[in-house]
Structures are given as structure tokens and as C-alpha cells.
């Protein structure tokens, strides 16, 4: 079994709220939280309770109904933010303040000493209120590492439970993530948390590198939604870990992930992206003849997931210009319960490929075509 140990902090209701198409209602947010809890996600992260006129209302509503997951609020190192989080009834706070030069100059305007004092004060306030408290150094992969080390060293004995090293702009490579993570794991006794943006398409790979280097807490969102190109997609990340060692994710209800993804997509008014690992509508779609023949004989020839475990359905395309006769045999057996001769299937497939080269078939048309041809060739 893999040595990876981890917990998921899902940020659909915080980072996901920053996605361009996200306009979740209170009812939708409650449903998303319930579905996340049903899957078994350990932490649900919410937006700062002071970030909008309804944020505190959302926080109170979700904390009042969630029973098994912990609810966290994403806050600045400000007293009013922490007081609002306390009022919202959350289990913990996700504090952040960056020490990168571009942030000290163009964002919050604090120097390193001021950042340390603000962080210490905020952490003490959270701890005094009994909140699980994390501190994150924003944009860690564009920050001078010596500054991160100084900051974390000053905070290590403050009562904070973990440190965060977000790749805020998605600039990091898997090697850079592994190297920084391993270095900080060797320096500090506190566990690390990672938040990977997907601007360069590396969010899943970077998150895996973080875990393999000794990190413990990972951020995700449903479908990967978030600011700009979003962050690590929840279902895809669970799928990535499943392929390494399925025991890593047996604590989650894998068969509920597709319902969660589909619901969030419907809230956004969009389709699940065609290239999203595992939850894409085409993730188990097979067309080429050599693929369909092998998959129908043994699914693991071209599939790395158990479709039943994730409550997905395999799709075998028998109506394209490159479909094979094994797919025709399979479909006719599905439709009629009968097995046809190989020579008949080969003839039907040849006819299908010829017609499909000039036009496409709807599923109903394709079924009618092969059944009519089966009748003709079987006489």
C-alpha cells in the first residue's frame, strides 16, 4: 500500500464561488455541502463570512446542517473576519497572508515583521475561540523561500495546526512542488496543506507531487472550478489516487461523485468538460475497433477505473467509420439477447462504416440500421 496519507479540504463553496459562471443560490450551496458530506469529504471550506452581504447567512446555514464534515471559513488576518467566522459557527479558519514581494508592495502593503505580528494575533484569536486554525503564505511558489522559512518559524509555536503553501497562480511544476514540500516537511513538525491552481494545466500532477513528498492536506473543488482556470478537480484527484492504490480512497463514497459533479454542472449551466478525467461524459467511451474488441474481452486493457465503483457506464461506439464488428455483435446482443455469427457482424460493420463515412447516426438510427441488417444477413 502507498505511504501517502491525506485529507481533502474541498473549496467549491469558496474558491468555486470565484469561478466566472458561478452564481450559486443558498439552496444550491446547501445541496452542494450535503453532497460533499455524502461523499465523505473531510473538510468543506466556505468563503469569508464578511465577503458579501449573504456570506454569513450561508455560513450559518451550512454549519447548522453539516454533521460529519468539518466546516472551515477562509479569512484574512483581521479581527472582524475571525469574529464573523466565530458567529457563523465554523469548526476552523483558513488564514492567509502572503510575504511575496509583489504582494507586500501591491496588495496588503505589510513588511515581514508586520505580517508576523498580524498572523500571530489572528492565530491567537482563532485558537482562543477553539477554532482549528491554518495559516497560509499566499503565492508560495513565487516567494523567496527564506521569507517563508522565517515566517513559519515565527508561527510554529503559536498554536496553528498546519501551514499552507498555495500555488496561487498555477506557475509551479511537479518537481518544484515536491522540492519545496520535502524541504518544509524536513524543517517543520506541522503538517502542510496545498492549494494548486491550474493555469498551466498541472493542478492534479502538482497535488500528487505534494502528497508524495510528505504533504497531508489538499484543496479541491468540484469540476476544478475557481478563479481563472480553477484548481484541482475533486473527482479527478480521487481518481488519480485510485489508480495508485485504491485503498487510498476507499474512505470515500466513490459512487456518489458523479452525482455531485453533475449537480454542480447543472448549477453552472454548463456541461462537464469533455477532457475532465473520470467524470467526463466520454471518460469510458470507446470507438476504435481494436479498443472495443479488447475492452469487451477485458475492460482493464484500455480502462484504469472500475466503472461500477464510480457508478459510470461504458459506451461502445459501433456506428463510426472506424468501429469494429465486435462492437456490432455486442450491441445486437444488448438489444435482442441473441448472438450473431462473426461473418454477419463483419458484414454489418462494413456496411455501417461505409454509410458512417458520409454522415453521422443518432443512437436510435444506428440501432435500427444494425437490426435491419442483421435481419437481412441472417436470412
UniProtKB/TrEMBL annotation:
Domain of life per record: Bacteria
The record's annotation in Pfam families points to: HCS_D2, HMGL-like
**Could you tell me which residue ranges the Pyruvate carboxyltransferase domain spans?**
6-258
Does the keyword section mention Transferase?
Answer: yes
Q: Which UniProt keyword terms apply here?
A: Manganese, Transferase
GO terms of molecular function: homocitrate synthase activity
Entries under PROSITE patterns matching the protein: AIPM_HOMOCIT_SYNTH_1 (PS00815), AIPM_HOMOCIT_SYNTH_2 (PS00816), PYR_CT (PS50991)
Gene Ontology BP annotations: lysine biosynthetic process via aminoadipic acid
Q: Does the keyword Transport apply?
A: no
Into which family does the record put it?
Answer: Belongs to the alpha-IPM synthase/homocitrate synthase family.
Name the UniProt record assigns to this protein: Pyruvate carboxyltransferase domain-containing protein
Species assigned in the record: Candidatus Wirthbacteria bacterium CG2_30_54_11
Amino acid at each position: 500500500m502507498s505511504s501517502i496519507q491525506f485529507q481533502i479540504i474541498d473549496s467549491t463553496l469558496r474558491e468555486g464561488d470565484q469561478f466566472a459562471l458561478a452564481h450559486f443560490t443558498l439552496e444550491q450551496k446547501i445541496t452542494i455541502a450535503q453532497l460533499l458530506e455524502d461523499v465523505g469529504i473531510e473538510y468543506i471550506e466556505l468563503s469569508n463570512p464578511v465577503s458579501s452581504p449573504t456570506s454569513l447567512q450561508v455560513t450559518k446555514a451550512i454549519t447548522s446542517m453539516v454533521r460529519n464534515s468539518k466546516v472551515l471559513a477562509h479569512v484574512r488576518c483581521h479581527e472582524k473576519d475571525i469574529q464573523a467566522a466565530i458567529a457563523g459557527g465554523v469548526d476552523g479558519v483558513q488564514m492567509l497572508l502572503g510575504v511575496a514581494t509583489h504582494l507586500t508592495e501591491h496588495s496588503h502593503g505589510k513588511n515581514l515583521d508586520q505580517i508576523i505580528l498580524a498572523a500571530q494575533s489572528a492565530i491567537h484569536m482563532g485558537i482562543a475561540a477553539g477554532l482549528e486554525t491554518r495559516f497560509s503564505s499566499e503565492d508560495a511558489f513565487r516567494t523567496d523561500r527564506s521569507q517563508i522559512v522565517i515566517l513559519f518559524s515565527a508561527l510554529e509555536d503559536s498554536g496553528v495546526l498546519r501551514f499552507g503553501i498555495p500555488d496561487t497562480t498555477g506557475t509551479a511544476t511537479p518537481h518544484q512542488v515536491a522540492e519545496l514540500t520535502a524541504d518544509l516537511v524536513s524543517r517543520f513538525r506541522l503538517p502542510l496543506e496545498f492549494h494548486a491552481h491550474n493555469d498551466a494545466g498541472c493542478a492534479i500532477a502538482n497535488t500528487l507531487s505534494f502528497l508524495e513528498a510528505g504533504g497531508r492536506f489538499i484543496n479541491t473543488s468540484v469540476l476544478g472550478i475557481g478563479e481563472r482556470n480553477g484548481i484541482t478537480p475533486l473527482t479527478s484527484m480521487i481518481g488519480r489516487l485510485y489508480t495508485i492504490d485504491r485503498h487510498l480512497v476507499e474512505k470515500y463514497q466513490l459512487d456518489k461523485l458523479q452525482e455531485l459533479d453533475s449537480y454542480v454542472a447543472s448549477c453552472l449551466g454548463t456541461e462537464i468538460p469533455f477532457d475532465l478525467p473520470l467524470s467526463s461524459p466520454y471518460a469510458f467511451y470507446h470507438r476504435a475497433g481494436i479498443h472495443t474488441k479488447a475492452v469487451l474481452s477485458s475492460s482493464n486493457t484500455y480502462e484504469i477505473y472500475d466503472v461500477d465503483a464510480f457508478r459510470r457506464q461504458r459506451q461502445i461506439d459501433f456506428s463510426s467509420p472506424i468501429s469494429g464488428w465486435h462492437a456490432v455483435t455486442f450491441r445486437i446482443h444488448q438489444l435482442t439477447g441473441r448472438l450473431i455469427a462473426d461473418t454477419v457482424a463483419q458484414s454489418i460493420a462494413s456496411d455501417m462504416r461505409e454509410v458512417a463515412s458520409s454522415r453521422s447516426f443518432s443512437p436510435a438510427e444506428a440501432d435500427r440500421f444494425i437490426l435491419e441488417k442483421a435481419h437481412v444477413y441472417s436470412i
